[in-house]
Design a protein that fits this description.
The structure holds 2 protein chains of 2 kinds.
Chain A lengths: L10 H6 L2 H22 L5 E6 L10 E8 L2 E9 L5 E4 L6 E8 L3 E2 L3 E4 L7 E2 L4 E2 L4
Chain B lengths: L6 H27 L18 H9 L2 H30 L4 H5 L6 H12 L3 H9 L4 H9 L4 H17 L2 H6 L8 H11 L4 H31 L6
Helix pairs in contact in B: 1-11, 2-11, 3-5, 3-8, 5-8, 6-7, 8-11, 10-11
The chains are: A alpha+beta, B mainly alpha.
Chain lengths: ~130, ~230
């Protein structure tokens, strides 16, 4: 709302430079910035590593992606870890997933929940999936 | 004149504010922690706070669509309220049949907020406008309304809250899911989710936030509008 001293200011300043206009504009800029960030980081990539109980990389481990569907997690994709234990899941469509790894002889890792800030957000797991060993 | 210490008043106000704000804090805390209200012992500080329950709400229902619906309905309501309440408030300062009929088209509280605000304007100003040949319509919009900004802000906030929170009327009126507003979205959301604690509270925060923001922006004018005429001798 305009104050008494507004009569001395140019009319466009009175109409545009007040908290009722600036606050929505700031919120809009934040929302657009977030949308831009999301659109540049939504390839659905999940990158991680599989290691054994001693921390050595595990090649050819079967890594599976589980996607939350209303009340339960359903299995969605499988990839295999490379020689350095690194795996890359592509095309994750969700924002609430779990990943797990297993290899015959080395057992299966616990399911690791991954919560994302938007669907298909690219993410690199900080902690590796650990296979407990035989 | 004897002066009394002011600290007991401030202490009472702080305690009252605390009691009033605790539920808001609790809703916010649960929305970022997901801790069930029946958890024992209850934690005052949220454990492992995160924003993922807000993400769940965003994707569980078409939140953006419902938000847009609520915004459109509320903006229309506010615009209609401002026009009709201002007209009715002005009509009530005169003796007319219109003044008796118009309150039924809008909200009585806001009409009297306008009336109190218009009453505070000197009658000589209106008389001068009439002498200058202004119609009643132009007197309202060019003389009275610029002087009744606090009443307008009060009207905007009250009609915003009533329209934003309205559940029954949209429930009766809407058939298509695309036309539903946020309160209906909340009931739909409850039927979708199994474990609703964190996400439900996050939804509440997302619905409440625009109203709180609007109040914080216009609180000065809102209080002025409600107290306008209250101290008139």
């Amino acid at each position: 709302m305009a104050d008494e001293d507004d009569f001395e200011r140019p009319r466009w300043k009175v109409w545009l430079l007040n908290r009722f206009v600036l606050t929505p504009v700031i919120l809009l800029v934040i929302a657009l910035g977030w949308d831009l960030y999301a659109s540049m980081n939504n390839d659905g990539l999940i990158v991680g590593r599989v290691v054994d109980a001693q921390g050595n990389p595990v090649a050819d481990a079967d890594v599976s992606l589980w996607i939350f569907n209303f009340t339960t997690f359903n299995e969605n994709k499988h990839v295999t870890s490379g020689p350095d234990g690194v795996f890359t899941i592509t095309g994750n469509p969700s924002h609430n997933v779990q990943v797990t790894a297993q290899k015959p002889g080395l057992g299966a890792s616990p399911r690791v929940p991954i919560r994302l800030y938007f669907r298909s957000q690219n993410v690199t797991l900080k902690e590796p999936l650990v296979l407990p060993g035989a | 004149m004897r002066r009394y210490p002011r600290w007991p008043i401030h202490l009472a106000l702080i305690l009252t504010s605390f009691v009033m704000l605790v539920p808001f804090y609790w809703v916010f805390k649960t929305s970022i922690s997901g801790e069930n209200i029946f958890n024992y012992p209850p934690s005052i500080i949220p454990r492992n706070p995160n924003l993922f329950y807000y993400v769940d709400v965003w994707y569980a229902i078409p939140f953006a669509r419902y938000f847009l619906n609520s915004v459109i309905v509320t903006v229309l309501t506010i615009a209609a309220n401002i026009v009709l309440n201002a007209m009715a408030g002005y009509a009530l300062t005169r003796d007319s049949y219109l003044g008796l009929a118009l309150p039924q088209f809008s909200t009585i509280i806001c009409i009297f907020v306008f009336k109190a605000s218009f009453d505070a304007i000197p009658a000589s100003l209106i008389d001068a406008a009439k002498v200058d040949g202004l119609s009643e319509w132009r007197i309202i919009w060019t003389i009275m309304m610029p002087l009744a900004k606090s009443a307008m802000a009060t009207n905007v906030i009250l009609s915003f809250i009533w329209s934003w929170n309205n559940f029954l009327w949209p429930l009766i009126m809407t058939r298509s899911p695309e036309m539903q507003t946020l309160p209906l979205g909340l009931s739909r959301f409850l039927s979708y989710q199994e474990d609703t604690t964190g996400a439900l509270y996050a939804f509440c925060i997302m619905v409440l936030a625009p109203g709180i923001l609007l109040f914080l922006l216009a609180q000065k004018e809102f209080i002025q509008g409600l107290t306008s005429g209250a101290t008139k001798g």
